[in-house]
Design brief:
Helix content is 17%, strand content 38%. With 157 residues, the protein is an alpha+beta fold.
């Protein structure tokens, strides 16, 4: 069964800001896979900004790497995809549907992300057509660009 909850209503805040409780209403992810802690701003059909607080308690750090903990690049891409998913759900007014990750293109990792960092994610819509969304997402720690990619998603359900 794809969706066993009733459709959601649009977010309460006019700027699209969301705390974790509201994010969890839209994303199907749960610990340890939810990679967005807070949405700072979301403009449907345009852009979104969010944060992921990277803590030493993340379940992947003991194995990646024990002597030099680094956030795996694939999880940075996952955070980008989750923010893009929130943007797709808002842009398409697709309450109750799910955004599925299809592709990551032009991904680059410029600096390691380590415990104590706050990852600021910025997504902009490149193309929105029907159930498909392509975004350009950049990840920063402070003012330093640490990663970027183009993300493609599709609505299901």
């Amino acid at each position: 069964m794809m969706n066993d909850c009733p459709p959601l209503t649009p977010p309460k805040n006019p700027d699209g800001a969301m705390g974790i409780d509201e994010i969890l209403k839209y994303l199907p992810h749960r610990f340890p896979m939810v990679m967005i802690d807070r949405v700072l701003e979301l403009k449907a059909g345009e852009s979104a900004r969010a944060v992921k607080n990277v803590t030493v308690n993340e379940p992947y750090f003991p194995g990646h790497f024990p002597d030099l903990p680094v956030m795996p690049g694939v999880l940075i891409i996952e955070a980008m995809a989750q923010l893009s998913g929130l943007l797709l759900l808002q842009s398409a007014k697709a309450w109750g549907q799910k955004a599925f990750f299809l592709a990551a293109d032009r991904a680059k990792f410029r600096q390691p992300v380590v415990p104590g960092d706050t990852l600021l994610l910025e997504a902009e819509v490149l193309r929105l057509k029907g159930k498909l969304l392509k975004t350009r997402v950049r990840a920063f720690v402070g003012k330093e660009l640490v990663s970027e990619a183009e993300i493609l998603l599709r609505l299901i359900g």
